[in-house]
Amino acid sequence: MTVCRHLKCFLLLIALSGSGFLLVGCGGLAPPSPRPLVIPPPPAPAPVPSVAPMSPEQAPAPEIPVPDPPPQVADSVAVAPVMVQLVAPQLAEEIVRYAISEEQKVSRRLAYHQQKGEAWRKLDLQLTDLVPFQLRPVQWDACLGQLETLIADHHRTGELLRSLQFGDFSLWAQAASALISAQRADLDFVNANCQATYDLVALTVAARLDSFEATVAEQLAAVALHHAREGRATEAIESLSRLRALDPARKPAAAWLRQLSVALVRAGAKEQALHLLAEHGAADAAPGDPGGLGRLQADLLLISGNRAEALNRYEALDLRYAAMASEREWVTAQLRLLRGDGATDREELELFLAIMRDVILFDGQSMPPRLNEHLRRLENLDPLGMLTYRARAMVAEVADQAEQWLRQQVAEVTGLLAQNQLAEALARLEVILLKPLAPAQVEKIQALQVTVEGKQREEKERRRQQQRQDLALQWEEANRLLGLRNFAEAITIFSHLLATEYGEKARSRIEDATFEIVTEIRREAALLMSRARSSLDHGRARELAAESWRLLRQIIVQYPDSGIVPRVRDNLRSVEAFLESLEPGLVEYLHQESSGVPENPEKLPAN
User: Collapsing DSSP states into helix, strand and coil, what is residue 275?
Assistant: First the structure.
C-alpha cells in the first residue's frame, strides 16, 4: 500500500488546510498553462540502449538499415546507413531472427570497410615514403584513425550479434548499443569528407611517383643527393653503392652527377667525388655540355694539388673541345697555367685557386663570403695580370647569377605582398637577409621589409576597426532584444561581449535581463501555487504545486547568482511543505526526477 493510499481519506482536509503562500514579483505576463504532472512517470525510452543487462522483453532493438557496400573502394560519395527509432522485439525467436538479419548487414558493411582500410593503409605507406610529414594533409591521420575505429566497431558489433544468435540474450543491450555506435561512426566518417581527402592524397602520391618516374633507382639517386647536400657524405656514398648494385649498367644524368660531385666536395669528400667522376667517364663527356663533367673533374684535381693528373685531364679536354671556342679558351688558359708558359707568383696562384674553389662551390644564390676579398687581394698583387683578368670574369659571372636569384626572390615577395600574404612575405625577407648580401642588396631588402611591415600595421588597424564595428553592432542588437523582452538571446550576446571593451556594461545588462527572467518565472510559480491552494481536486493540486516547484528550482539552478535567489529559496520551502502535506515523499521524488536518477520507481508515490 503506497503512502498516497494512506492519505486518500484526508484529501479534502489537506487541500483546505494548506498554509498560505505568497510570491511577490514585478508586473508582467500571464503565466502559461501548467503542463500536466503524472507521478511517477514511466522512464522515457532512451535513443541509445543502456549497457546494463536487460531481458529480451525490456530491451529496445535498433532497426537500422545498412546499405550494401559499393562495388569500388574509392567511391566519390560514401554510403552511410540511416538511423531510425528503436523497437524492442518481444520474443527470443524475434531476437534471433533480428540478430541474423543485422549480422548479415554488418558483415557486408565490415567487408566493405576492410577493403577500404586496405586501400587507405597502402596509400598511407606510399605517402610516408614519398611526401615529407609536414606536407601531409592535416585531415589524413584523423580520417585514417576514424576508419580503423569504424572497422573495430563493426567487428565488435558482428561478434555480439553472433552471440545473440546462439541464445546469449544477456548481451542484447550491448549488441544494440554497439550497433548504434557503429552506425554513428559510419555517419561521422562520411560527414568528415574523408573520401575527398583520400582522392587528394592519391593525386599527391601519383604526382610524386611520376616525379621520381616510379623507380627505386631514381629514389636512391635523390636520397644520395639529399645526404650529400646535408653534409652526410658517408650516407650519400652508401646510397650510391646501393644504386650501383641495383642497376650497374645505369648511366646517371650529367646534371645529377655534377650536383652530387659538388655536394660531396662541400661535405668534405673530395676524393669520393673525383672517384665518382672518373668512374662515369667524366673526361669523355659530350662536348656540348657547357662547363661539363670533364672540366669539373680537371678543376677538382687542380685545386686538390694533383697537378699532373689535372694536366692529363685538361689535355684530353683540349682535344674534345677543339671546336668549342669558349670551353677551349678556358682549357687553353688552364694548360698555359700548368705548363708554366707565363711567370706566375705563388701567392697569385693560391688566390686564383681559392677563387676557383669558391666559384665551383657557389650555391646559385648568394656570393661566397670571401670571393670578393680574394679578388681584391689578387688585383692588388697584379691588377693587369692574366690570372686577375680571368678571376674578374669568374666573379662577375657569379655576381650576375646571385643578382638574378635576388631579383627572383624580390619578385616572389612582391607577389605575396599583392596577395596580402604579409606574414609569409616577411618571413621570406628575413631568410634572404641571412644570406651574405652586398650592402646595396641589404638596403634594398630592408626597404622592402619596411614596406611589408607598414602593410602589416595597416592591416592590423583595419582589423581592429572592423572588430570595433562588429562589437558595436552586437551591443546594439543585444539592447534591441532586451527592449523586446527577448532576454535569453540578449544574455547570449551580452555574454560574448564580457571580454571586450563593453565588458562592464554587458555585465550590468546581463544582471538586468536575468532579474527580469527570474521575476517572470517566479511570478508564474506564484500563480501556479495560488491555483494549487484553491483547488479542491487532490491530483490537480499536486500537479500545479509540483510545476511551481520545478519553476522555482529552475531559478536556483540556472540563475544561482541572482540577488532574488534567497527569497526564491523561502518560496521553495513553502511549496515543499505544501507538497509534503499533500503526499509525504513527493518532494523526494521531485528531487530525484530533477536529477534524472530515481532510486527505485516502485517506492515513488502513486496517483
Answer: helix
DSSP for 17-55, please give it. HPPP------S-PPPPPPPP--SSPPPPPPSS--SS---
Considering the entire predicted model, what is its pTM?
Answer: 0.39
Of 209, 229, 250, the last residue of a domain is: 209
Residues 171 and 225 in one domain: no
List of residues 6+ apart from 339 with CB closer than 8 A: 311
Within-domain flag for 167: yes
**Closest among 107, 111, 89, 117 to 160, alpha carbons compared:** 107
Phi, psi angle pair for 86, to nearest 5° = -80, 135
Identify how many contiguous H helices and E strands the chain contains and give both numbers: 23, 0
Q: Which of 126, 113, 206 is nearest to 156 (CA)?
A: 113
Tell whether the model's pLDDT for residue 396 goes beyond 80: yes
**Chain-centre distance of CA 462, in angstroms?**
28
Q: Region 385-394: what's the mean pLDDT?
A: 88
Amino acid at 531: R
186-192 contact pairs (CB < 8 A, 24+): 186/80, 186/81, 186/109, 186/150, 187/80, 187/81, 187/83, 188/146, 189/78, 189/80, 189/143, 189/146, 189/147, 189/150, 190/78, 190/79, 190/80, 192/139, 192/142, 192/143, 192/146
Cell triple for 492 = 547570449
Which three three-digit cell numbers place residue 120?
587507405
Which position has the higher pLDDT, 561 or 69?
561
Q: Name the residue with cell 592591416.
A: 459
Say which amino acid occupies 171: L
